[in-house]
C-alpha cells in the first residue's frame, strides 16, 4: 500500500477515464473539491450508482494519481491533483511516439505481409469469414419459410394465453 496521496502503480489515464463513473467524477472535481458524500450523492442522482461503487472509483482515481484526499475529521474531501492533466498528456505523447515510429511501416504497406507471415508461422490466425445470412425465400406468405423454433427463435410453442392473459382452469 502506498502512503496517502502517493502513487502505488502506473495505470493508463485512458483506462482511468474509460469508465463513465470515473469520467463523471473527474468532471465534477474540475469545478472544485467535494466531499465523498457529496460525490456519492451526485453520482447516484445522475447515474444510479451506489456508495460502494463510488468508493471504489474514488480509490482508483486516488491510486492512479488523479486525485488527492484531505481528511477533516470524519469528512474526506477529494480534489484533482495539480498534475493530473500531465498524466494524460504523457500518455498521449507515448501514443504519438508509437504512431510516428510506425509511419515507415504504414507507408510501405507491410501490415498485410507481416500478418500473412505470422499466420504461416502459427502465431496468428486468419479471421473467420462472415457467416452468410439465411436465404430469403420468395413465394406465397408462410410457404417455404425457415422453421427457427428449433434454434430458440421464432414463434413460441406456448399457447397465446400463456402470458398471463388467460386462465389456468
From TrEMBL:
<protein>
    <submittedName>
        <fullName>DNA-binding transcriptional ArsR family regulator</fullName>
    </submittedName>
</protein>
<feature type="domain" description="HTH arsR-type">
    <location>
        <begin position="2"/>
        <end position="99"/>
    </location>
</feature>
<feature type="region of interest" description="Disordered">
    <location>
        <begin position="121"/>
        <end position="169"/>
    </location>
</feature>
<dbReference type="GO" id="GO:0003677">
    <property type="term" value="F:DNA binding"/>
</dbReference>
<dbReference type="InterPro" id="IPR036388">
    <property type="entry name" value="WH-like_DNA-bd_sf"/>
</dbReference>
<keyword id="KW-0238">DNA-binding</keyword>
<dbReference type="InterPro" id="IPR011991">
    <property type="entry name" value="ArsR-like_HTH"/>
</dbReference>
<dbReference type="GO" id="GO:0003700">
    <property type="term" value="F:DNA-binding transcription factor activity"/>
</dbReference>
<dbReference type="InterPro" id="IPR001845">
    <property type="entry name" value="HTH_ArsR_DNA-bd_dom"/>
</dbReference>
<dbReference type="InterPro" id="IPR036390">
    <property type="entry name" value="WH_DNA-bd_sf"/>
</dbReference>
<dbReference type="Pfam" id="PF01022">
    <property type="entry name" value="HTH_5"/>
</dbReference>
Amino acid at each position: 500500500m502506498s502512503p496517502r496521496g502517493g502513487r502505488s502503480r502506473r495505470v493508463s489515464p485512458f483506462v482511468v477515464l474509460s469508465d463513465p463513473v470515473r469520467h463523471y467524477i473527474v468532471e465534477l472535481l474540475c469545478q472544485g473539491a467535494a466531499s465523498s458524500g457529496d460525490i456519492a450523492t451526485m453520482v447516484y442522482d445522475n447515474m444510479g450508482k451506489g456508495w460502494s461503487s463510488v468508493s471504489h472509483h474514488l480509490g482508483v482515481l486516488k491510486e492512479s494519481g488523479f486525485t488527492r484526499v484531505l481528511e477533516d475529521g470524519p469528512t474526506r474531501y477529494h480534489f484533482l491533483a495539480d498534475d493530473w492533466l500531465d498524466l494524460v498528456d504523457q500518455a498521449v505523447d507515448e501514443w504519438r511516439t508509437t504512431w510516428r515510429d510506425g509511419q515507415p511501416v504504414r507507408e510501405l504497406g507491410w501490415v498485410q505481409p507481416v500478418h500473412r507471415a505470422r499466420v504461416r508461422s502459427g502465431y496468428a490466425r486468419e479471421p473467420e469469414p462472415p457467416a452468410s445470412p439465411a436465404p430469403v425465400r420468395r413465394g406465397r406468405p408462410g410457404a417455404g419459410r425457415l422453421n427457427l423454433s428449433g434454434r430458440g427463435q421464432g414463434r413460441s410453442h406456448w399457447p397465446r394465453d400463456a402470458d398471463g392473459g388467460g386462465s389456468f382452469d
